[in-house]
Structures are given as structure tokens and as C-alpha cells.
């Protein structure tokens, strides 16, 4: 076999491949064997039909076609390996010459990873939010904890904001009561926004036994999205009472003996959360600067496939779970289809550039992923997918997605290398030290967000199947 590589552009090549006919012998034998098992000729046992009879009855062309289809992937792969090409996607194959007994010649055009020169990233400098926890934020956190320990007591008065009311609901569309539009004994906190739009105004001021009617767009059920006439009847009103903010509350709501200790712990938790947010912000901004420094040609077909995949995932995974279609989603977002497609294309380009640059950095820095790192990443992915670790692992293995997970971890480690070399300061001008055991894991999450890796979706699809 002889092969030659022609570079069409930085992301696409054409392979020209010539195969002497004798190298097709195995494929020709396989073609005769396959046809033998599929056809019947009077006077011959199945599977024992001579080659010359098959040629006479079914045509030599049918045999050659079967043999060539069998041989092409093998010779294409050999040519790719010989040319040391890093191909992307499937090739477009064109048979240019087929002479029986002499020669098979074909071309294969395919996208390839572009050669990327890693820029000097040591000069990257980014600014992130300062790590500050205010007294107001601590008070808010304690107040939220206090809300969780609120008690309710029945009252004989009109319902007011913050009260818990027990209500019966009936929804009509076009004058007809919906089969799934009746609910009795529903507990609702006025002002929580957890039910229908307009219900807060309807029940406020009603005592037990009072009722009101209002119009609201249904958020679910058989008439989702339609305007309904909703009748609400209040059957009970209860006032919420918050516990006193004192040491007794601290002992009831936590492992601490005093309110001051509880507040100190709340401050520490907020600081931890803000440290994580600060690290994520640094990684995102360092990545943005790295992408600006590098020239990365984008393969057109790969970009088109990536845009299509992102649209598919949005429509069939995210929007489907919310009961929305793309048209309704765009209406809510206030975007045109053209704006949406432009944004999706920009996100896809960013994702491809991120993957190409970080993969090149993985190779340059010779970064490896050990079993412990892969297991930790798999556990986190499983948690975010809502599947058990065993279910997720099985789905990933059966779906052939293990290399994808390894790639995610490796790219996270590559980004961590860049972040470590960058200068990160906060809005107060203080240098931020991001050295932490979790830095690579957090960087992996940042990379996932940029590249929108599909391991979760593929694992979920495999699990549903």
C-alpha cells in the first residue's frame, strides 16, 4: 500500500491511497464467504458455492463492492497511522480507481487536530472578587437557619404575608374544571412564590372559610401554559413564629452552645464558599486570557457537529425536563433564533479551543491521570447526574465514555498548571494564593463548563435505555 497526505487547510487533509490488488485477497475471500452464506444456488450446498459460480450468477462487481467495503477501513487506518495524523470524525471517501486484478485507489478527506503552539502563559494576570464576609451576610445566614426552625400556630384572623394557609384549589379552562385541576388541603406560605402567580394577592386578607377567584397561567399539568380561572378557598390560617435568637436556639439548631459560636461557624462556612467561588472565578478568567493568547483554527465540520450536539442536549435534556420547547425557551429568554444560534456557535468555538489547547498542554507537560483521581471525578459526576456511583460507572463503561472522563480530569490538571503560573489578585490589590488540594478538581469543573462535556448526558441516555 502507498499513501500520500495533502494538507488542504490547517484542519483538513486529503489522503491518497493506492492498494495493489493482491493485498485485497483477505477481503475478497471474506466477500465470497459472506455471499455464500446469503444466497442459494441449485445443485450446491449452502456455503459451498464456488467463486466462479458466484461471479457468473451474481456478478464479479458485487463481490468487488463487498471486498472494497470490507478493506477500506483497514487501509484508511494504516494510512492515518503512517501519516501520524490526529484525525477528527469520519472521513469522506471517494474511490478513484478500481481495476480488477490490478489496483484499488481512493482518497479520504478528514478533519485533523490543528498544530497548536502553546503560548507563554506565565504573564497572565487576573483580578477576582476579594474574600470578604460581611456581618449582614452572617446575619442573613443565621436568619435562614432560624426560618427552618419556625413553628406555626392557628390564628383566627385574616391571612397576612408570611402566614401559612391551608387551601383548596379548583382550576377551570374555558369554563370546564380540569381533571387534574382540583387540590384540597394544600399548605402554602404566603409570599413564598411556590404556587401560582396571583395567589398571594388572592388569599391575603381572607379568613378561614373565605374564598377568591383569580386568573393565572398554569405551570404544569394537562393545560400547562394556558390561562385558568382559579378558585381558592382558605380553610385555615396559621402564623409562623420564629425562635428567639439566643443560646437556646444555638443549642437547638446546631452543635454549638452559644449564639456567638453559631455565628462564628456561619462566618467560616461563608468564607469557605467564597474561597471556592473565588477559585472558580480565577480559573474562568485565567482560561479566558489563555484563549486570547492562542491561535486555534477550528475545523468546520467539528464545529457544526458541536453546535448540533449542544442544541440537541438543550432541547432533549434540559428543556424537556422543564416541560419547555425551544420556541418557548427563546420567548422567555427574549432572544431570536438567530441570536440563539450565534451564541451557541460562540460557545462551541470556545469549547473546542479550550479542549485543543488544554489537550496540547497535557501532552507538553506529560500530565497523567491516576486511578484515585479518576474515581473521585466519577463519584462527583455521578452525584451531579442523580445516579448512584455504580449506575454511573456502569453506564460510562458500557457507553465507552471512560476516555472522555480521563480527558476531563487531565484538562483540569492542565488548567491548574496555568492558574498556578498566573498572577491572581483581588479587588483590594492583594495577591490570592490558590494552592489547594481541590484546585485541580475545581479546574476540571471549570473546563467542563467551557467544553460542555457530554459524559453525563451519554451516561443518562445509556441508563434510560
From TrEMBL:
Location in the cell: Cytoplasm
E.C. no: 5.2.1.8
Domain of life the protein comes from: Bacteria
Segments of this protein annotated with the region Disordered: 433-465
Key words, A-Z: Cell cycle, Cell division, Chaperone, Cytoplasm, Isomerase, Rotamase
Principal EC category: isomerase
Broad class of the protein's primary localization: cytoplasm
Catalytic activity: [protein]-peptidylproline (omega=180) = [protein]-peptidylproline (omega=0)
Database matches in InterPro entries: PPIase_dom_sf, PPIase_FKBP_dom, Trig_fac, Trigger_fac_C, Trigger_fac_C_sf, Trigger_fac_ribosome-bd_bac, Trigger_fac_ribosome-bd_sf, Trigger_fact/SurA_dom_sf
Boundaries of every PPIase FKBP-type domain copy: 162-215
Biased composition regions of type Acidic residues, renumbered to the chain: 433-442
Biased composition (Basic and acidic residues): 451-465
Similarity comment: Belongs to the FKBP-type PPIase family. Tig subfamily.
The record's note on its domains: Consists of 3 domains; the N-terminus binds the ribosome, the middle domain has PPIase activity, while the C-terminus has intrinsic chaperone activity on its own.
Function, as annotated: Involved in protein export. Acts as a chaperone by maintaining the newly synthesized protein in an open conformation. Functions as a peptidyl-prolyl cis-trans isomerase.
Protein name per the record: Trigger factor
Source organism of this protein record: Streptomyces badius
